[in-house]
Specification:
The structure holds two protein chains of two kinds.
Chain A (H helix, E strand, L loop, with lengths): L3 E10 L2 E11 L4 E5 L6 H8 L7 E6 L2 E2 L5 H7 L1 E3 L12 H8 L8 H6 L1 H21 L15 H14 L4 E5 L7 H17 L3 E5 L3 H7 L2 E6 L2 E7 H6 L1 H8 L2
Parallel strand pairs in A: 3-8, 3-9, 6-7, 7-8
Antiparallel strand pairs in A: 1-2, 1-4, 4-5, 9-10
Chain B lengths: L1 H30 L6 H16 L11 H24 L7 H23 L4 E2 L9 E4 L2 E4 H23 L1 H11 L1 H6 L4 H27 L1 E2 L5 H14 L4 H21 L2 H18 L14
Antiparallel strand pairs in B: 1-4, 2-3
Helix pairs in contact in B: 1-5, 1-8, 1-9, 1-10, 2-3, 2-4, 2-8, 2-9, 3-8, 5-6, 5-8, 6-8, 9-10, 9-11, 10-11
Classes of the chains: A alpha/beta, B mainly alpha.
Chain lengths: 252, 297
């Protein structure tokens, strides 16, 4: 059974069909690419899959469960986490605190027991911090755990966003242009990191990317969107050679 | 000597403003709204103590004043959450102006509700043992109530800082205040976080109501309105949205108000207090410790 299955997922804003009939099936442990020119509706797909937008038609299933139209919190708890095109860390909080917020759903200590049942509070707090440090360690960020997150260099902020998303314990990780603004060296590192996440966290990854080198380097399959419709779909090497795709990217 | 005792009295007045301003600033930071009904929660807290711990309103109940204090904290927290649920939550996506007007409406509703239920006459706050004494520190007379108000506010500030920085709920509050939708996508329950914020803010208002009660003794339906507005000035002065800012702003405003009462004139003190609001908004709208962010009221 695929981890993510969408059936004719569509959304219209006023008269504009932003995305129509988006259908994919993504198997477990795949790295799947979603590409297309600017304004093709890629981020809109992410917004539907995370509950930010309610699709006007179609359905999507995570691990067989229909999550169409559910709230962002519900969808996140069921196992979809994401990063953002323009980084949206909690900039005034420390690196560690950002990850701790991601671990929020695992917190079984309500505010009143944090006040009244101190031993349990300290134990939970310690466990959460250990988890957060371990996660930061994977991304080589543990040395900066107490830094304010907005002071991190750009590439590390991207990594921290991924770490924060992973903290919510997802089954499916959505990465929105993870290589945006990175130099070739950083992009190379990022590809390693993404593979590492897939293998180390037993993760399925759907990513939006403009950098076709990154896409052909790590994605097994891709879908190409153009003006909200699916232009091509399949194995990455076939799709990138498709004349229709080349036209959409480079013009006639 | 007189100056020193004025400073202490000013600090104590400021401590009361600080407790109220903390509620204002937390609600603003997290729910992104100005809860102008916050002052009336102070009144509710004071009336609750009068009901529970004196024979003035309900002769059948006459428990020790500490029971009244605890009841006030619980009642205010519950009413704060209820008001948010009934009046503000449906407006989560409405314009901030709509929410602001609703808050003013809730304020009038509460004041008139108090008037109908408790009457317009002044109700006497029960005497609190230990709180109405005059202590001599050297040759300096110190009102014990002022001292306790200060202690309360410092304890509250420490507890609140700990809560926000060191608990998951507190961190969720910070996250929601920075980026509500990103927090939601990380699994933070925004509605619950806002409810907790209202509960805490209203509980602090109850403590302030208690302090107001033993300091000024007479409670009327509009008791909390003026301290509420002044605490709003304090929150703006310190930088609205900032917790340490509300504390510092409250203390500063209390000192300014008290000193201007003593050294300038009682009639001018309010002019000076609200003059500060105008000057801050003109010169440094982000306040003393405010975050750099341009947010509309």
């Amino acid at each position: 059974m695929p981890i993510l299955k969408t059936e004719n997922l569509s959304i219209t804003f006023g008269g504009l069909k932003a995305v129509s009939d988006f259908s994919v099936e993504i198997e477990k442990n795949r790295i799947y690419g979603l590409i297309g020119p600017n304004g093709a509706g890629k981020t809109t797909v992410f917004n539907m899959l995370t509950g930010v937008y309610k699709p006007t038609a179609g359905r999507f299933y995570l691990d067989g469960e229909d999550l169409t139209g559910k709230s962002p919190i519900y969808i996140n708890r069921k196992g979809v986490a994401r990063t953002f095109q323009n980084i949206r860390l909690f900039g005034k909080m420390t690196v560690l605190e950002n990850v701790l917020v991601g671990l929020h759903a695992m917190n079984k200590c309500d505010p009143f027991s944090s006040i009244l049942r101190l031993p349990r509070y300290w134990r939970t707090e310690r466990e959460l911090k250990n988890k957060a440090h371990a996660l930061l360690d994977v991304f080589g960020l543990d040395g900066e755990a107490e830094h304010i997150s907005s002071n991190l260099p750009y590439g590390k902020q991207r990594k921290l966003e991924i770490a924060r998303a992973l903290a919510t314990n997802p089954k499916l990780l959505l990465l929105d242009e993870p290589a945006a603004g990175m130099n070739p060296h950083e992009t190379g590192e990022l590809m390693e990191t993404i593979r590492l996440i897939r293998d180390g966290f037993d993760m399925t990854i759907l990513l939006i990317e403009h950098d076709l080198k990154l896409v052909s380097g790590i994605c097994e399959e891709v879908t190409v969107l153009n003006f909200g419709t699916t232009l091509a779909q399949g194995k990455v090497e076939d799709v990138l050679r498709d004349p229709a795709v080349v036209t959409a990217y480079l013009g006639e | 000597m007189e100056f020193l005792s004025s400073i202490i009295n000013g600090l104590s007045l400021g401590a009361m403003y600080a407790m109220i301003a903390l509620g204002y600033t937390m609600v603003y930071g997290i729910a992104k709204m100005l809860n102008f009904a916050h002052g009336d929660v102070i009144t509710l807290g004071a009336y609750t103590v009068v009901i529970v711990s004196s024979t003035v309103l309900v002769p059948a109940i006459n428990l020790p004043v500490w029971a009244g204090f605890i009841a006030a904290v619980l009642v205010c927290a519950a009413v704060g959450v209820l008001v948010e649920f009934v009046a503000y939550k449906p407006l989560r996506r409405a314009s901030s102006l709509a929410v602001l007007i609703t808050a003013i409406g809730v304020s009038y509703f509460l004041q008139n509700f108090f008037q109908i239920v408790f009457g317009t006459s002044t109700k006497n706050f029960p005497r609190v043992p230990l709180f109405n004494e005059t202590w001599m520190i050297g040759s300096l007379p110190l009102n014990s109530g002022s001292f306790f108000t200060l202690i309360f506010s410092v304890l509250i500030m420490i507890a609140l800082t700990f809560f926000v920085k060191k608990t998951q709920t507190g961190r969720a509050m910070l996250a929601v205040s920075e980026d509500r939708s990103a927090a939601q996508l990380m699994g933070v329950n925004v509605n619950r976080t806002i409810s907790v914020t209202f509960a805490i803010g209203s509980a602090l208002a109850a403590v302030a109501g208690f302090c107001y009660g033993y300091t000024y003794t007479g409670i009327v339906p509009t008791t909390g309105a003026m301290p509420g507005i002044k605490a709003f000035v304090a929150a703006v002065l310190g930088g609205i949205g900032s917790i340490p800012g509300a504390f510092v702003g409250g203390l500063a405003l209390g000192i300014v108000e008290y000193l201007s009462q003593i050294y300038i004139s009682t009639q001018w003190s309010n002019v000076i207090v609200f003059g500060i609001l105008i000057v801050v908004l003109l010169v440094k709208p982000t306040g003393l410790l405010g975050k750099k962010r341009s947010e509309k009221v």
